[in-house]
Amino acid sequence: MEASPRWTALSAGLCLELLAGSIYGFAAYSEQIKELLGGDQAKVNFVSSIGQFGMYVGVFGGIFYDRFGAEATAYLGGCVGCLGYALAYMASVGWLPANVATLGAFFFIAYHGLGYLDTAAISTSVKNFPGNKGAVIGLLKSLFGLSGSVIASVAVGFFGGSVSESGATVLLFLACLVLVLAVVPARFLTLDASRFGRDAQIRGREWCRLGAGYGLVLALAAHLSVVSPLLHSANVSRCHPPP
After folding, report:
1. For position 74, what pLDDT does the model report?
2. How many domains does the chain have?
3. What share of the chain is helix, strand, coil (3-state, %, to 5)?
């Protein structure tokens, strides 16, 4: 059975949700931010809050979506998110001033862009699956929630060293990832005309597709629940070898 455009759009939306959920990956570079701010945890928390506020003012992403559509919204979100992460990276390596004001602004920009990605993915999927909105949004938000664990695992497993040592590299990685994985899937965020007909409801073998998506998410969650503690233990042993 050939996949209809709405299933392709759902796959693209899953990529965008993985990126949008990187807001939960702050711990992967928070130690780097803490060092830049003189070890003051209260300042780190404030920077994080400013960044999160950037995502929560997503009303502008919704307005932009209604005016220009899903593809343009994803493009803009990817570019803005990439810019924010890139600025944070440049501050973390000393190319730009690193203080509460600048870092707060950089993460506000990054997370605000991520909000556009979330809006593009959710709004398109709701329109493409009007009869099964709950099941589809549940799948999208599952990947959104797992994103932080994915980023933390990548930070420790691929970039080496402690999380604090890899913080700047993770920010550069996220800047590149957000740009690529937002721009490429964006062109597949199309509205399917079948949503207006009798095929609007998920039927028959289509449930297998949705079930496979949930199965992959559950497998990823199980994998992360096993691998993340092992990576953490290996990282602690490497940074603090026994006497």
Report:
1. 95
2. 1
3. 85, 0, 15
